[in-house]
Design brief:
Belongs to the protease inhibitor I47 (latexin) family. Keywords: Protease inhibitor, Repeat, Signal. Pfam families: LXN. InterPro entries: CYSTATIN_LXN, Cystatin_sf, Latexin. Helix content is 20%, strand content 34%. The protein is built from four helices and ten strands; from the N terminus they run H-E-H-E-E-E-E-H-E-H-E-E-E-E. Strands 1-2-3-4-5 form a five-stranded antiparallel sheet. The chain has a five-stranded antiparallel sheet with strand order 6-7-8-9-10. Helix 2 crosses helix 4. The protein is globular, with a radius of gyration of 19 Å.
């Protein structure tokens, strides 16, 4: 296991890059709670949630605590993969309401209300109402995510995306670089959209691989190489590092990412790498 102290991801880099929304808001709720029973979190019954009245078995949980924020983070990554771009990222604001429903024979469903903000241009914030269902069982299954936003985001720079797209398309040599950001958290302005695209694509990895015992966040591009294509898409081969906040493990991952400003991001291939 590669940990925070390992050479691949210095603790300084993690401190600099860890989003504020991923810091536990309640100091008495330890990380080990991710591996424990949800029963101590249960409070009074909740009947408010995504789209319809909740089951009477759904119980409120503290919105500031680890399980609620972890589940909301997976929803945020799902939203980012659907809506993000090199010049459009999102960050999670405060979780305002959370409840947990035990579905016998299936898994745990979290009902959430939290804030989502466009982060690059300090843009608009919207309230998000969401459900995420973690399936239990021996065969890994991606969580089911449903969400609704209370409005539309206003500050997406489509022009900046187009300028970036045209610049990469007309490079005389294919882009290839490494260590974005460096171990002190620094990156050039030119490399920020390359990193942002990896962050957006990482939303797919997080969504597909999350469980109730994980809390993933992409922290660094180790290597990236542009792949030449015969169509209008940009393609990048990324080697990235994920930080699992729950276990403190650093996980290398390969992503083959396609992007077009009119068609969005697609992860064509991905694989967890050996340490």
């Amino acid at each position: 296991m590669r940990t925070l102290r390992g050479p691949g991801a210095p603790a300084r880099l993690l401190q600099l890059l860890l989003p504020a929304s991923l810091v536990l808001a309640h100091p008495e709720w330890p990380l080990r709670a991710a591996n424990g029973s949800a029963q101590p979190l249960l409070g009074k019954p909740s009947r408010r949630g995504y789209g319809e009245q909740l089951s009477p078995s759904a119980m409120e949980i503290p919105p500031s605590h680890y399980p609620a924020n972890r589940a909301a983070s997976v929803v945020l990554h799902y939203i980012a993969y659907q809506r993000g771009s090199p010049y459009r990222l999102f960050e999670m604001g405060r979780v305002n309401q959370a409840s947990l429903e035990d579905i016998p024979g299936t898994g745990h469903k979290y009902h959430l209300k939290f804030e989502v903000k466009e982060s690059i241009q300090n843009g608009s914030s919207l309230n998000c109402t969401a459900e995420i269902l973690y399936h239990h069982g021996e065969t890994p299954v991606a969580p089911e995510v449903h969400y609704a936003l209370a409005g539309e985001f206003e500050t997406h720079s489509k022009e900046a995306d187009s300028i970036f797209y045209n610049r990469i398309q007309h490079l005389s040599e294919a882009l290839e670089t490494k260590n974005i950001p460096d171990n002190d958290g620094n990156m050039t302005e030119e490399m920020k959209p390359i990193f942002n695209l990896a962050k957006v694509a990482s939303g797919y990895i997080v969504w597909q691989n999350s469980t109730e015992n994980t809390w993933y966040n992409m922290i660094q591009i180790q290597n990236v190489k542009q792949m030449k294509r015969n169509d209008d898409y940009l393609e990048f081969s990324y080697e990235v590092l994920f930080h699992d906040i729950a276990s403190q493990e650093i996980i290398p991952w390969h992503m083959q990412v396609l992007w077009h400003p009119h068609h969005g991001v697609k992860v064509a291939e991905n694989s967890r790498q050996s340490k």
